[in-house]
Amino acid sequence: DAKTTQPNSMESNEEEPVHLPCNHSTISGTDYIHWYRQLPSQGPEYVIHGLTSNVNNRMASLAIAEDRKSSTLILHRATLRDAAVYYCILRDSYNTNAGKSTFGDGTTLTVKP
Amino acid sequence: DAMVIQNPRYQVTQFGKPVTLSCSQTLNHNVMYWYQQKSSQAPKLLFHYYDKDFNNEADTPDNFQSRRPNTSFCFLDIRSPGLGDAAMYLCATSRDLGQTYEQYFGPGTRLTVT
After folding, report:
1. How confident is the model at residue A91 (pLDDT cuts 50, 70, 90)?
2. What is the chain A residue with the closest CA to B32?
3. What is the DSSP code string of B25-92?
4. Which of B103, B104, B105 to mutate to test the interface with A (most CBs of A within 10 A)?
């Protein structure tokens, strides 16, 4: 399975943008890039996903490098409620691995008031 | 609200005593997953059901079994819990398999083995 590499931890100030990087140099052409986050004592929560083009939704933006070997999750204005572990995941193709997610180690985001 | 519900939120069992964790969903999703998450680690997929088809991960111990009697419910059975099975167990659903479908997670059941 293609793997992802993320920094163990990052810090941000409240109301400032946060850029969370993810490297996935062995990504295959059919892998989608998904981001989930896990708040303390909760189950993971879907954030965003994409294939090649940059994506925006109400929670965040996803910037995908042209060669797809890296991506960046962008929180435009961090709040204290965004403090969580952020996971970058590659979703395998249906035919080979039934679309399963393999979670990497994730980045623990701390937001300072 | 449509959601994924896990009961109980906290479960204590004795070493070697069988335990069952339950998950229900009101999303009418085809796929249900069970993950194990140990302290300070990422979730690890144990198995999933696509409708009634059961798919076990290669490294999931035989001690872990699952049942899905209908679309809404899925159970995780641990036949003889060991101390190393203490973890958070997460249930998740998705509408279908494939790379584009997001997963919806329940709040988890924290299992303690004494």
Report:
1. confident
2. A100
3. ESS--SEEEEEEE-TTS--EEEEEEETTEEEE-TT--TTEEEE-SSSSEEEEEESS--GGG-EEEEEE
4. B103
